[in-house]
Automatic annotation (TrEMBL):
<dbReference type="InterPro" id="IPR049202">
    <property type="entry name" value="DUF6817"/>
</dbReference>
<protein>
    <recommendedName>
        <fullName>DUF6817 domain-containing protein</fullName>
    </recommendedName>
</protein>
<dbReference type="Pfam" id="PF20680">
    <property type="entry name" value="DUF6817"/>
</dbReference>
<feature type="domain" description="DUF6817">
    <location>
        <begin position="5"/>
        <end position="89"/>
    </location>
</feature>
Length: 168
């Protein structure tokens, strides 16, 4: 259902490393499934770019339509999607393990719950590892910095996610 919805919103046509955004969303979800993530995080993985992200600003769903995404994936998964999309990466990534984040949509800084930090870390691993696996050019340019960042977060990642980082 979420796949059809996001495809209808243009995800099947938007270019993304490895093909289309829809294909990337599926691979991100598949990684989370393989790593044993709970269902809400798997659904969030599939919808993780719905509102656009700091790294991929094209939105498929407006913030005024959050209720639509809640209806499709549930409140828990939508909250993860919102947090992921809203994450001001430049500000938040260096502070994530101290749980300080800034919402790029509102500019509000807050303290994230430890469970949300774990979800954001796991989702970031799945997302970024897929992008690097699909794009030799991006891997060449960003693998070192990304490996350093994700390695610094490994204590919050699942063992399979940390192992996937090492393999890449």
């Amino acid at each position: 259902m979420i796949e059809d919805f996001l495809a209808a919103r243009g995800a099947a046509e938007l270019a993304h490393p490895g093909g289309t955004l829809l294909a990337h969303l599926g691979r991100t979800r598949d990684a989370l499934v393989a790593w044993g993530a709970r269902p809400a995080l798997q659904l969030a993985g599939f919808a993780h770019a719905a509102y656009g992200t700091a790294g991929f600003p094209q939105s498929l769903v407006s913030l005024a339509e959050r209720h639509v995404l809640v209806d499709l994936v549930g409140g828990e998964a939508e909250a993860i999607v919102y947090a992921y999309c809203a994450l001001d990466r430049e500000f938040s990534y260096p502070r994530l393990l101290s749980r300080v984040v800034r919402d790029r949509f509102t500019g509000v800084e807050s303290r994230a719950e430890p469970a949300l930090v774990r979800d954001l870390v796991e989702l970031t691993f799945a997302n970024e590892l897929d992008v690097l696996a699909q794009s030799p050019e991006l891997r060449k340019r960003h693998a070192g910095d990304l490996k350093a960042l994700l390695s610094s977060w490994s204590a919050y990642a699942s063992v399979p996610a940390a192992e996937a980082l090492e393999r890449l």
